[in-house]
Hints:
This protein is of the alpha/beta class.
Amino acid sequence: MIPVAEFKQFTEQQPAFKVLKPWWDVLAEYLTVAMLMIGVFGCTLQVTQDKIICLPSHELRENLSEAPCQQLRPRGVSEQMGGLREVSGLKNNLDLQQYSFINQLCYETALHWYAKYFPYLVVIHTLIFMVCTSFWFKFPGTSSKIEHFISILGKCFDSPWTTRALSEVSGENQKGPTAGRVTATVEASAGPRKADEGEKEKVLVEPEKVVTEPPAVTLLDKKEGEQAKALFEKVKKFRVHVEEGDILYTMYIRQTVLKVCKFFAILVYNLVYVEKISFLVPCRVETSEVTGYASFCCNHTKAHLFSKLAFCYISFVCVYGITCLYTLYWLFHRPLKEYSFRSVREETGMGDIPDVKNDFAFMLHLIDQYDSLYSKRFAVFLSEVSESRLKQLNLNHEWTPEKLRQKLQRNARGRLELALCMLPGLPDTVFELSEVEALRLEAICDITFPPGLSQLVHLQELSLLHSPARLPFSLQVFLRDRLKVIRVKCEELREVPLWVFGLRGLEELHLEGLFAPELARAATLESLRELKQLKVLSLRSNASKVPASVTDVAGHLQRLSLHNDGARLLALNSLKKLAALRELELVACGLERIPHAVFSLGALQELDLKDNHLRSIEEILSFQHCRKLVTLKLWHNQITYVPEHVRKLRGLEQLHLSHNKLETLPTQLGLCSGLRLLDVSHNGLRSLPPELGLLQSLQHLALSFNALETLPEEVFFCRKLRTLLLGYNHLSQLSPQVGVLRALSRLELKGNRLEALPEELGNCVGLKRAGLLVEDTLYEGLPAEVREKMEEE
């Protein structure tokens, strides 16, 4: 006997695969089991019992032309026919071996093939049906996707984050729900549902009662948060992989079409040949020489049972075929390669859940046939809103208020600043630090300030460095008069949030980013009219001209900084309108000459032309019109000489000429009597004019990194000098006159050719060891009393 367990391998699938088996596949599976039982039962009878029993036919010679058994019927089956010969009790003179021989010979030659192989055909056809039903679960190209999908689906269904996300949605309109009201909330938000779906929803919500009651219980632990985060990444990658093709959809259609074709073929030939299963089988074989008879009447012992099994089998095949036809209808009556989460979006409020396509959509359609609850819980991990909520939750766990307070420190302006860099989001716990005065956010993507921002009542400074931020209107009103300084750095200036230009209380605006190539020449910037109190504007970009909107704040702008990163600034006429401007920086703007528009700025006090291409500064004479100019920075250029007109700048207090190509200084420089700082370091100076001694107000003199071999004695006439930088020159000695500089507090002598230091350094009462930058060997050569005096606090 053949045990049914032997056929288990043909239908065996992983238990989790049942979620991809709709009701018609489940019904078809049971039908195939029933058909397999019919085939196995028939095969068992075929093997264990006699197949056919034959007897010689004692017919009259004149009737030999008729087939044996033609007029015979078993008694009791029907009424006896007229002319029936009584053959019972006749002696055939055949032994057992002859009967066995005749039975086998007639079974092979006289019995119709359908009646002979019926049970085997049933088994074979049923196995084919089983293979067609489960082939896509076994085929390598589809099974891997199915296994991956089922694995992710199960994890998404069981994830605590799914329960948390759905419970938050159910409780959005009802704060502080009790455990007994949670189910009612979900059912009310879902609207009218079917009875069975309502029961499933209740099953889902039961475990959420614990999650939604007290706030402390709703928190996920760190491990659960990391697992949910990993699930989001898996779902993203899986979606990209599966949506590329439709092999699952195609394979399912092909196996369904094959089953339909198989159904029609089986139905047709079974209906045609089922009547061939006959109880009496005539057999005529030429065995006269062996048995003495050529005609036999045979009894097919299984015919009655096989005919009943055949009709049963045909009935099951018909039902199976109907399920296959319904499957084809389901496959083609609507597009299954598209799946919309519209109902889930309406129910959960997660409006960003995307629709899916191809194999991903097809599997979700199959899941809905099993239980639509799976799709709802799976959709949570397709929502970017849900993912951002999870990230926010993990951030809040990681960045507690205590940890954030440890990062607080005073910035350059003396404000209490919190700096956060390269975080996946902005922790809500930030807004619990009400003492924060400056907030610096760097490389934090997609910031949306929550209402909690209004708790930062002392916030005055905000920096957004590669951190795009959205600000609700209510918070714009909160920051409009409160925020004083804002810094925004982005790839392109058009990414600067528009709400920045509506902060009417803003005093400093620092923007860094590039204009798009097609906009660089126009250099269009948003209107600054609302910035009524703006005093400082800093723009680092690639503009070809000064943005026209700068004139919107011409009446109160005091400091303007344009950093062009080497891009040439061509049009500067707009600067003439900045009548109140006190400080102007034109850094790396590709300037070859000092712009004439600068000379119209009567209130200008400081000008910085760093890192340009200035070679000649003959226009320096025109600075006499800028009567308030006190600081001139011409450093990091290619200036080869300073014109004599510099003497006209008598009000100048600071002159920066470092990192140029100067080889000499004009004697007229000594006439700038108000000069307090002179920086000519990093040049090629070989000597200094004695007239420098006329600068009686000079306090800072930087001469390092030149080629000076000696210093004129007149330099030491500048008795107010506090800083004297002579490092990295060719000095072989330092004049004892240095001792007259009693205010000197910093002296740099490193990198020279000095053999000894004058002991008169001891007379520089303000000079201490920390302010004397010199080689240790030279310092050790000073008298002990001088060293002791310098080391005194």
